[in-house]
Amino acid sequence: MRSILYVIAVLLVIGWAFGAFVWNAGHLIYILLVLAILSFLLGVIKRGDI
User: Fold this and answer.
1) pLDDT (0 to 100) of residue 43
2) So where are the chain's domains?
3) Are 33 and 16 a contacting pair, CB within 8 Å?
4) Tens digits of residue pLDDT in 1-50
5) In whole angstroms, what is the distance from residue 19 CA to residue 3 CA?
6) Which of 4, 10, 36, 38 is CA-nearest to residue 28?
7) What pTM value is reported for the model?
8) For residues 19 and 11, what is the distance between their CA atoms, to the nearest angstrom?
9) Which residues, including other chains, have CB under 8 Å from residue 47's CB and lie 6 or more apart?
10) Residue 5: what pLDDT?
């Protein structure tokens, strides 16, 4: 489950970066960024590093 969260987080960050620099997608870019950060934090918390 942990690796799936990391894959989702990486894909969302890539999507956010791509959208930020290529298209003006409005607030969708920020929603993707927040989802990526939340996925990453959930993975770190579930792994027990904090």
Assistant:
1) 82
2) 2-45
3) yes
4) 567 878 888 888 887 777 766 666 567 777 778 888 888 888 888 877 65
5) 24
6) 36
7) 0.48
8) 12
9) 2
10) 79
Residue found under tokens 């942990």: 2
Residues with Cβ within 8 Å of residue 35, at least 6 apart in sequence: 12
Contact 5, 42 (CB under 8 A): yes
pLDDT at 13: 82
Report the SS3 class of residue 26: coil
Compute how many other C-beta atoms are within 10 angstroms of the C-beta atom of residue 22: 8
Contact 50, 44 (CB under 8 A): yes
Distances (CA, A) of 8 to 18, 24, 32, 44: 15, 22, 11, 14
